[in-house]
Amino acid sequence: MDPYDFWLLDLDGTLVDVEWSYTREVFDRVGDRLGREFSDREADVLWSGLTGSRDRQLRQWGIDPQEFWDAFHDEEDPLVRAEQTYLHDDADFVTDLDVPVGLVTHCQEFLCEPVLEYLDIRDWFDARLCCTEQTGWKPDPEPVQCVMDDLGVGHNGHRGVLAGDGSNDIGAAWNAGLDAIHVERVGHERRGQCVRGDYRVQSFDDLF
């Protein structure tokens, strides 16, 4: 593949993932609070963002997104989450990148920071941003452009790429004028659709 002046990366599902038992337990507790059971498929769809916008999916199921996220974040224990998170075998390619590297993730800061600390990968990134209502959410280009500005590559013609596991990542890359790498961790059948990108791989090893 062509060299890039900088790289941006998603976190969950791209560089790291969480043991299914943790996901299942969290959704069980959230379901108890909301008075609604979540099937394995529903939990998988929401956790992995398989259908794109999680808020849109929640509304389609008749669930108020704000009520869901309030319960969801209350039920997540940052330290347990970190201990149940593992690094993908191919993720260490990041340490070989000799260009600025940024992290743009929907994982909230109170969860993201313990994960980065536990896996000892905080120093992989020269800038990072955990999306909020204030920053916007991928595929909105605003959080991507914010990290580009932090890296000093926002407005000077540098050529960059964003890699992620979901359609929101690809949309954010293209909306920000970047190339996009889709790493398909779950498979097309489980996702229920095909996500396009400038590069489409099952492992980052396929790129190099």
TrEMBL record:
Q: Which Pfam families match?
A: Hydrolase
**Mind listing the GO molecular function terms for this protein?**
phosphoglycolate phosphatase activity
Q: Which UniProt keywords apply?
A: Hydrolase
Parts of the chain that traverse the membrane: none
Any one GO BP annotation for this protein: DNA repair
Origin: domain of life: Archaea
From the Swiss-Prot or TrEMBL record, give the protein name. HAD hydrolase-like protein
Q: Which organism is it from?
A: Natronorubrum aibiense
